[in-house]
Protein 1
Amino acid sequence: MSKHTRGPWSLADRGDYNDFEAESRVVFGTGKRLAVVHHHGDKEAEANANLIAAAPDLLDATKVLLSDHLDQHGERVCDCQPEPQNVGHLCSACRARAAIAKAEGRDL
Ligand SMILES: [Zn+2]
């Protein structure tokens, strides 16, 4: 079982918190602040805030997809070398495992 704050996480509206700049986005879950993305209205920072808020959903979806994949195809032996620098060259199942491990703070 994951130890992170249970999802869903969401973004507060801009300006909801007076202790941060007006354009900053506060990510919260289960009624508490989890992260603050500081920015001045730039699109990259807004995309980063959206990605952070989606993290629990992405983790859950990745676990479901990996489980469904293994149910359908079984555990296949692959030639992947699961090292952090090789993640872009792994098969889809190994990439999913790597992403889940990263999200859970584990080594590959
Ligand atoms: Zn693989």
Note: Residues 43-73 form the longest helix (31 residues).
Protein 2
Amino acid sequence: MSSLPASIDSVRTARPVTVRSDSARKATALTDSTGEKEAVAGAASTALATQQERVDGLPSALRTVDLRAWYGSTEALHGITLPFPERRVTAIIGPSGCGKSTLLRCLNRMHELSPGGRVAGQVLLGEEDVYGPDVDPVEMRRHVGMVFQRPNPFPTMSIFDNVAAALRWTGMRGRAAVAQRVEEALRMAALWDEVKDRLHENALGLSGGQQQRLCIARALAVEPRILLMDEPASALDPISTGHVEELIQQLKQKYTIIIVTHNMQQAARVSDYTVFMLLGELVEFAPTEKLFTTPSDPRSEAYITGRFG
Ligand SMILES: Nc1ncnc2c1ncn2[C@@H]1O[C@H](COP(=O)(O)OP(=O)(O)OP(=O)(O)O)[C@@H](O)[C@H]1O
Ligand SMILES: [Mg+2]
């Protein structure tokens, strides 16, 4: 697999996250006010509330502070305070219905598009609250891209246009510039060699695994900082799954990746940190190796040893 083009990094560093002192102050206040609740919730999350700006010396690219989410009157997330360390892979695991997808969709403001979808608390991208009054959700989603469980290429478009369309929506013009970025994105998604001679064929002519890598290329083309992946390999065969996992390992050199997976072996293989959730609550966040070998919470242990879920 080819390594990532260096130009991407220079573009990324040229667009720093806006630092706003008012949101930073708000974050501190919120963390303080939730201290009592977190003391009840457990020592692990209390430690997180104070340490989540850095994890093992790494800055958090994204973090949540007392994040709650509802569908109508039903609360699906009950106050999640969590860091996502920069340029690392964080896996989110937990039984079906525990809120993994809801959490992921809150991170890029897609939850509010669900019927009755409502959110409270904070999601901080750098120091900026993505739910702040001045934030344009469409612009924000450029920085926090998403790949879904089922590959969803634009069905009427060619392979090339699937990626180019994402660029044009962000205002990019100029045939040569667009073509160059499409190639870069397809290379980053480890798909270029397989499609370079058929770029103008319909995207639906690709295999499922290739379509999923095309969707990853489409998400990467606009140069997000964070890549959210909701069970990106669950509809794929083992070979395509291997491709996607290998790709995730490559991409973390440049991106912060948050991946939901039901496959615990996959979480153990690809992630640096793992989050275990249960019934809309955060049970444990830990380095993956620790969570899978010496978890702190008996519920994590019960889950990873297959005693429930
Ligand atoms: N659109 C919706 N309307 C109402 N409730 C919803 C909606 N989507 C999810 N929920 C509920 O919110 C809770 C969390 O669901 P979510 O989809 O986040 O779980 P999950 O951990 O991703 O599950 P799975 O592993 O099955 O994908 C569940 O109780 C679910 O029934
Ligand atoms: Mg889900």
Note: The longest strand covers residues 58-71.
